[in-house]
Fold this protein.
Amino acid sequence: MDSKNQSMQAAAAQEYKEVEMQAQGPATQQYREVQPQYNTETAYQPQYTTETAYQPQYNAETAYQPRPYDSSLDDYYEEEYRTARNLGAAALGLSIGGFITGWFGLGLLLDLVAIILGAISINKNRFKKGLGIAAISVASVGFLLTMLVYGFAFNEWKENGGLSGLLEDEPVAVTQDYDYDYDDIVVPQTQSQTGTDTSKVKEKLHYSVGDTVTVQTDNGEYSFTIKGVSETSERNQYADSDPDRVVLIDYEYENISYVVEYDNYYNDKLYMGSNDFEFYDADGHSMDDYPISYEYPHSITPGHKTSGQMALGLNNDSNYIEMELDDYGYKGPGIVIDLDW
């Protein structure tokens, strides 16, 4: 009986337990059934020891040690800077000289030397390199300008035919007609008459004071007139010569159509002075200008006139001067003005 009651009580307790677990849910069931299995022996333990900890590897023997001061370096750098400054100044002077003389071949050489010295100066003194930079700049500009000028000149020369054009250049024949009074031409004597060959002497037209001489040239036409001849007592103490007499020549000229072309540039002004004539005294000796104060003519354009004076030194008692026109553009008979006073 007792054993039967115990069995019934155990079955009832088991049934109650199952009912209670169903009422509380599976989470409570799991919580109750699973127990943490923590083992302090297998937990993480840090493996830090003082022996394996980081130790700085500083060695006092390999630390920075300052060098002892060497005063000889000051002298060395001072000498280097002085040399660089002198080279820069020399380079700047050469560059300026090359720029000025760039029209000549020497200017190119000076520019190249200046550029080299300027570069050396900059390399020796990298803190103060103003002179070197200035020298290189001026020399470079001068070199480029000179090369441009030479390039244009060479191109112009090439367009004109170059060397073949120079070799084939022949004088142009003058076909202008000259309207002169050939009754006044002085015909030179032949060798049979004088015993001397004068066949190559140029024919001459003679004019007097007051005559208007018209000259036709390759550059156009002009005329001039000798108005008068007189003497003056004025002297120049600084003159190179001391003639016995000083003669003043008054003259006038007109630019009719005279225009000169210089390398595609036209100059339409005419100026006549003592340099346009040759002077000889009665004995055939050449005469020179004498520097005193007198009236100077003006440069005039076509259609205008001007007047002026010339002064000559004379060393004889004759009142005669032969005045001969000297104009390379004139191809006619020689023009002589006989000055008598």
In short: Residues 27-31, 169-176 have pLDDT under 50 and may be disordered. The first helix runs from residue 2 to 24. The chain is about 35% helix and 20% strand. Residues 188-340 form a domain with the Immunoglobulin-like fold (CATH 2.60.40.1240).
